[in-house]
């Protein structure tokens, strides 16, 4: 088995999404293959249309605080159990999954679909070349029924209330401003539509891949 860069990139994405806990060695071993299969299955579930899919997005709500998420979004999704009330839309600019393949539709909680689509439409005006240069076409998913990394509570992803963008360059531990590459004007656009980008931990922000319809600051 030889190192393959595409496998390395896949491992980074899978690790970010909490499917993979092995080495980032670029080798397509059994752990990597199993993690990829699990994420693909989860992805099919989160993008599959259901008869309950609303035709129109709900009217807007203010982003809740972490403690109010279930009151606004309903209960967090659980593996093999209930899922949040989802809505689906075509990305306003070309996006691809970090693990490969074009993003045909973004599925998210129906309460955040309108502001998310509006924010991404604003980003589209920066042009595809600029978006690619900053890795903003690299989509790492929305709904994922899991706990927050390093915390005991549920992740915003379990409510389908957050997306991740360009995880390889906006890693969980990368500081911003600094190592994380998320452009300031993108943060500004998301904030304008009610989204929080990253978590404020101390003087600098981290986890800048994480774009959540949750008010934390
Ligand atoms: Zn996230």
Give structural notes.
- The chain is of the alpha+beta class.
- It contains 6 helices and 7 strands.
- Strand 6 and strand 7 form a beta hairpin.
- Helix 1 (5-16) packs across helix 2 and helix 4 packs across helix 6 (184-192).
- 39% of the residues are buried.
- The structure holds zinc ion.
Low-pLDDT residue spans:
49-55
**What general form does the structure show?**
globular
Proportion of strand residues: 5-15%
Number of helices: 6
State mean pLDDT (0 to 100 scale): 87
**Cofactors and ligands present?**
zinc ion
Q: What number of structural domains do the residues give?
A: 1
Please write the string of helix (H) and strand (E) elements: HHHEEEHHEEHEE
Helix content percent band? 25-40%
What's the end-to-end separation, in Å?
46 Å
Q: Main beta sheet: strand number and arrangement? A: 3 strands, antiparallel
Q: How many β-strand runs?
A: 7
Q: Which secondary-structure class do the elements indicate?
A: alpha+beta
Indicate the radius of gyration in whole angstroms: 16 Å
Strand order of the largest sheet: 5-7-6
Identify the notable features of this structure and list them briefly.
single chain, 217 residues, alpha+beta, three-stranded antiparallel beta sheet, two-stranded antiparallel ribbon, 30% helix, binds zinc ion
């Amino acid at each position: 088995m030889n190192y393959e860069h595409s496998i390395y990139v896949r491992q980074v994405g899978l690790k970010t999404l909490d499917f993979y806990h092995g080495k980032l060695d670029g080798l397509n071993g059994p752990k990597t293959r199993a993690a990829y299969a699990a994420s693909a299955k989860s992805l099919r579930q989160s993008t599959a249309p259901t008869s309950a899919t609303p035709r129109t997005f709900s009217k807007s709500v203010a982003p809740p605080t972490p403690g109010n998420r279930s009151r606004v979004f309903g209960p967090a999704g659980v593996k093999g159990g209930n899922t949040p009330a989802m809505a689906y839309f075509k990305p306003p600019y070309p996006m691809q999954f970090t693990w490969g393949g074009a993003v045909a539709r973004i599925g998210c909680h129906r309460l955040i679909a309108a502001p998310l689509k509006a924010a991404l439409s604003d980003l589209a005006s920066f042009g595809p070349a600029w978006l690619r240069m900053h890795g903003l076409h690299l989509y790492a998913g929305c709904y994922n029924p899991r706990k927050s990394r390093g915390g005991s509570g549920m992740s915003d992803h379990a409510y389908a209330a957050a997306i991740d963008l360009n995880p390889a360059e906006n890693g969980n531990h990368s500081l911003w401003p600094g190592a994380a590459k998320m452009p300031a004007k993108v943060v500004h656009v998301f904030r304008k539509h009610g989204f929080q980008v990253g978590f404020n931990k101390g003087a600098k922000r981290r986890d800048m891949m994480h774009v959540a319809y949750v008010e934390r600051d």
